[in-house]
Amino acid sequence: MKYIYILLTVMILVGCKENNKEMEAFTKLEEARNYVTESFDEKEEILMISDELNDAMGMNMAIIGDEILKKGYMPKGFEQKEGYRIYKYERE
């Protein structure tokens, strides 16, 4: 029983680390840019952008993408969710 408790505790702690990466989808350009410049430091990163920030011309993502490229990240795809996209990035 003790081992099961330890295993569950470890699994919860590992899961909590991943959950710390979860965030609300950004709805403001400056908040997304600031997050990228201040928080992107892992080998793989994600960025959640609301559909309202994903404008038809792509200007907002071009501005955000410029900051991402400056930090050495390359796009790794995205997932469309209801009301937002999860953009994935990685660097070597």
Give the DSSP E fraction (strand runs of 2 or more residues). Answer: 15-25%
> From the helix content, strand content and strand pairing, which structural class follows?
alpha+beta
Number of individual domains: 1
H/I helix tally:
3
Low-confidence stretches: 16-20
Q: Quick one: biggest sheet?
A: 3 strands, antiparallel
Mean pLDDT: 86
N- and C-termini, Cα separation: 42 Å
Helix and strand succession? HHEHEE
The global form is: globular
Number of strands: 3
Specify Rg, calculated over alpha carbons.
16 Å
Summarize the SSE layout with pairings.
Blueprint lengths: L1 H19 L8 H11 L4 E7 L8 H12 L3 E8 L2 E7 L2
Antiparallel strand pairs: 1-3, 2-3
Helix pairs in contact: 2-3
Describe this entry's structure for a reader.
With 92 residues, the chain is α+β, with helices and mostly antiparallel strands. Helices cover 46% and strands 24% of the residues. It contains 3 helices and 3 strands; from the N terminus they run H-H-E-H-E-E. Strands 1-3-2 form a 3-stranded antiparallel β-sheet, with no helix packed on it. Helix 2 packs parallel to helix 3.
What's the quick description here?
With 92 residues, the protein is of the alpha+beta class. Helices cover 46% and strands 24% of the residues. The protein has one domain.
